Here is the input.
Amino acid sequence: MLILASASPRRAELLSQLQVPFKQISIDLDESVRSGEEPRDYVVRLARAKAEAGWRQAGHVDPVLGSDTAVVCQNKILGKPQDQADFKRMFALLSGAHHQVMTAVALRSDRGLQHRLVLTDVSFKVVTPEEMEWYWQSGEPQDKAGGYGIQGLAGRFVTRIQGSYSAVVGLPLYETAELLKEQHLL
Here is the structure.
């Protein structure tokens, strides 16, 4: 059985669309960005580390899928907002601008560790201070990278997306399916 090394309900919902039986486990990792680490290297490192940690935790038996997503604006990773002021700082960067969402997915099995990196371009409309306040008060931004979830209320701010919608949500379905096919799991 496939193991999803993530407690994220969004990733589980996406993975269920591939109709592969799986179970979820939670992985506890230090997700700090290393000094001088590029955003794409960061998400790949974390996805691989989650898959590897899950593989160890599962006793080196079942294949393990790990994933990580980062919202990147002006080559800076925008993590989960620490508080409302941090959220407003992030949204001021995203408002009326273009940013990238980088998602890496990694699969660890007895055949080794493989990964894919997906880059998706996202553009936001100019978000007014009132809209920012409304969105913060909704409670949705608090646990989301970049302070937003495209699949939720923040979808109203997105003017354009070029790339993988599912990767922005947290798990690129096409790339995940390809990894699973390569290991004869799909």
